[in-house]
Amino acid sequence: MTLTERLREKISQAFYNHGLLCASYPIPIILFTGLCILACCCPLLKLPLPGTGPVEFTTPVKDYSPPPAAPDHKPGEPSERPEWYVGAPVAYIQQIFVKSSVSPWHRNLLAVDVFRSPLSRAFQLVEEIRNHVLRDSSGTRGLEEVCLQVTDLLPGLRKLRNLLPEHGCLLLSPGNFWQNDRERFHADPDIIGTIHQHEPKTLQTSATLKDLLFGVPGKYSGVSLYTRKRMVSYTITLVFQRYHANLRARLMLLHPSPNCSLRAESLVHVHFKEEIGIAELIPLVTTYIILFAYIYFSTRKIDMVKSKWGLALAAVVTVLSSLLMSVGLCTLFGLTPTLNGGEIFPYLVVVIGLENVLVLTKSVVSTPVDLEVKLRIAQGLSSESWSIMKNMATELGIILIGYFTLVPAIQEFCLFAVVGLVSDFFLQMLFFTTVLSIDIRRMELADLNKRLPSEACLPPAKPVGRPARFERQLAVRPSTPHTITLQPSSFRNLRLPKRLRVVYFLARTRLAQRLIMAGTVVWIGILVYTDPAGLRTYLAAQVTEQSPLGEGALTPMPVPSGVLPASHPDPAFSIFPPDAPKLPENQTLPGEPPEPGGPAEGAHDSPVPEVTWGPEDEELWRQLSFRHWPTLFSYYNITLLTAPLPQDIECLASDGMLLVSCCLAGHVCVWDAQTGDCLTRIPRPGQRRDSGVGSAFEAQESWERLSDSGKGGSEEPGDSPPLRHRPRGPPPPALFRDQPDLTCLIDTNFSAQPRLSEPTQPEPRHRAGCSRARDGPGYDFSRLVQRVYQEDGLAPSRAPALRPASPGPGPPLTPEDEGGCPPEKGSPSLAWAPSADGSIWSLELQGSLIVVGRSSGRLEVWDAIEGTLRCSSEEVSSGITALVFLDKRIVAARLNGSLDFFSLETHTALSPLQFRGTPGRSSSPTSPVYSSSDTVACRLTHTVPCAHQKPITALKAAAGRLVTGSQDHTLRVFRLEDSCCLFTLQGHSGAITAVYIDQTMVLASGGQDGAICLWDVLTGSRVSHMFAHRGDITSLTCTTSCVISSGLDDLISIWDRSTGIKLYSIQQDLGCGASLGVISDNLLVTGGQGCVSFWDLNYGDLLQTVYLGKNSEAQPTRQILVLDNAAIVCNFGSELSLVYVPSVLEKLD
Amino acid sequence: PALGQTTDPGGAGTNPTNTEATPMALSRNPTGHSPPAVQRNVTLFPEEVIATIFSSAWWVPPCCGTAAAVVGLLYPCIDSRLGEPHKFKREWASVMRCVAVFVGINHASAKLDFANNVQLSLTLAALSLGLWWTFDRSRSGLGLGITVAFLATVITQLLVYNGVYQYTSPDFLYIRSWLPCIFFSGGVTVGNIGRQLAMVRGAAGLRMFLSYRETRAVIIAFPLVS
Fold it and tell me: Which residue ranges have biased composition labelled Basic and acidic residues (chain A) (predicted)?
């Protein structure tokens, strides 16, 4: 007897005994196995859900400095820092956690009193925080200067305008429900109602407003009439731009807590993962489909048992729980899974396999039926024991080989697989065998039962309920000596009523099960698709935070008012821009120390409430905050995503030749306003630009745009009645017939990437533009120039659009802006200033220069064609809200109300190339051209430090005057040359939202009060004052005879300029209120849902409505920009459309 | 697509410009498989994704599919010629397992970071042999797989040499060194499917033909996926 044979015999014997054991005591064994599974899986509870949540990384707060922009360790060398821990974070979040309760509690207090007084403490705290002055080496700064400044909310969130901060610090507290106004809070009769006002009625998985403002999960906030504990907790959330530690110290000073022991302080960096794109999902879905096919084909073979479904389920449970056990065990022993669980899961299942289970089943059912169940199981097991062991040894061997590939990912996979295989074996032996024995026993019992009653009195109802039984019996019949005769189906059908036959049919085809399955699949799909906390929120950003501080119970300190705030400043977090994987760094801000315990004054003799600070409190913020920040930031159009959704366009600027669009995230695109080609794309700083492929390549990439959440481009969801207009006179009947059909003139619909689809108008130049953008690296400049020449005849008037023609003294310049630039060489090497962070708030374009104002206060001048940074100003604390670029002068208005005047100095080295303009062109006004060989310097000439008390919201310049409008309800007029303030115009009772000034010194302004004022710029007096709209004025423009205004009420009103009488108004589509443009003195264009409409200004007649493609059907037009060459640019949020308007229209009247 | 970037250390997952460069048309494998060069940071624009999928030349997917079908037909034919029908693990579950492992190999080659190309190639070679041993174990299968891999590699070399398309960073003459391994495992997988289909009893010629058309559809899907 060889060794192998002896081994074989031993194994066989062991399996036999084991089978006997399993079949004898099925229930205890199953219970034992279940306990084992649970025990092995419990380490999993600590793991974050795979892939769905943000990733955390903790660093001590001491000596914190933001991580470097580039990973400092060598690629091969392992580092304890996660890969994403690079670059500055998006923001630092500091939360002050307040826990309070009313003490003593009197019987006669109302239920509302539980939280009235605790909540009122929030106002005081917010005030303390707002008044806090930060001191560091660079001097003292107010909170406003260091916190993250936000601009407008997204247009869709108008109803939250009063609740979330705009144009200022992102500081959230429950007080926001009452506009941070204590009086309002005290006057509020229904606090609960106010708080729950905006709660969605339906089930919602993303953060609600209450969650955001309270900062803790709803059930922990204690703000509910049914709470028993009478303990209210909330947080005050403060978002910083940079890390500052001393707010925490001050709060600790203000709210000392004698017995709060501070734990080691640390920052938690949170990284929100990128979203999964469809392209990535396709392989994933494929693998899952294969997996299901595998499971299907495997379990299909289970046969001759009592319940196929039950056994199949048991088999799948065996494999799945063995995988869970594997992960749990590995975690227990210190291995942290780094692989994407969802990705490798199918492979793990396939590697572990269902084979053994099937083999077992087969061998057991093939044992003689007349044996006792125990013996059948034991025999079946032992007969397959050898092959099972051999297979397992082989698989382990193969996997172990994989372990020696020394590739970390493969090693991890193999480790999981090995542990999974072993635990799978364990489960097969204990769990599955036992289930099998139970099944066989049941089958035997069923057979016995069958045999006893005669087959004739088979109750008819029974087969209906259990159609599977028939099949099984049919299958069993050949192998069992005692046959149950079934009537042939035809016979059976005869005896059955029709109703039963239908039921039979349903049962046979398993219609119900299939429907339910399909429904479940659809439901899960919908859940996955809509659930922001699920798949779609695989998000993005890293946040650092300081660990929760004080541990241990806080001393209860009754306050006279009976409120005991145990405020606990939680950690500060920094959110990292997930953007470029290489660049971002996380920086952490040390959180504030807990300032536990309220001020202790006047102790009450009644028992104080138990306000304790327990570990569960420390975990509180973790449960909520991380997942809610993406929501919060998305309200302000700040994306934390690595692969962001297409973003809306924030700013648009054009000078007739070029069109520049940008989004808040910082991508700037330069388009050719004639053809719609993307010329240059300036990604946001920090994102690596692949210079090897060039701009055409990047045009295919994801494209971010921002909504016009900036100045003036606001709209409000209101009612949307159908289009109506009030004609003032009888419309000329022939007008409509005379209209040219504009539809064919829609030129190019250039959305983010050049599409392969044909432009609507089959004009050769456009197609050329599109296709070239796809296959040519870089930009062939000469072709553009040629094209411009060809077009010359088409568009004779070529006055720069946004530039009031100011014939400033300048070098003789070519009329053609792009002409000055030499052909691009294909791989522009771009130098990105590492410090150039902050989103773009304002944008101007002139010649080939783009002036960009960032939220960081930096002013940058870029070359539009080459995408290179020409110069930039030093960083100032306050963001640039508006820009004027006129001639060689740049004026920047800042959030803190100051004005900076820059002058642009060029040292021109004019090359002959610049003078290639044709004679026909030279008639148009000249504009400065900055060729790439120039050196451009930007010099600060003058600063008006306190032009306004509040942020400047509107800035316009013309005729040598500069007009600013601010939130402090005033306008100021400056002289451009010497930046001397001429007038301060007062007359509005709300913040200024729109300003218009033109060459003829007409000045109009609109404010949040819905009023329009016309001013005389020469004297500074108010000419007329009109109450125009309900809600803000969103845009304002004038023609020679009338004033056109649009408001948040989605109305466009036309006023007589001299008398101030309203001529008529036009109802706009929902959300399209601000989109209007004046093409000529009597032609107005307005935007609608996926369309633009042309109106005759004199009569108020709708001339024509042009629909722009199917895609933009649902998109409201956000903004319309009229170019000088009779083209208009419509901003549909994430898409731009360029529409040519033939000059025929101008001759209409 | 990102064939060239698959071995880019650290760059495979996170490089934002890791989309396909159309001019660098990657060579697809004539047997219809190329690693699922999974791209990240792709927008959710459907058009763009579709454009990415069809960014390779239009004839590549049909050619790959046809080639895969031919290889799939060859396996049972050779079996019957040699008179040794393949008996090892002849069931659909095993075939699906084989397909899953093949997809996994592709996945690994596209997504994992290897220290260098030699390591990548060796690992893939070992994995391919493991695939053959686990699911095939026949000498004819091994021979045919090697032949297919050799022929496909030569064809790809010729195509690249003639400039039909190119790889971003070739390291084995004109192509990537791991390509033969992928060809080999692809051949084995397709052969496995073909043999299973040929097992269908009582299938007349028409039915066989239909089955193969079905297979072909499956195979054609692969390059699309990747």
Answer: 71-81
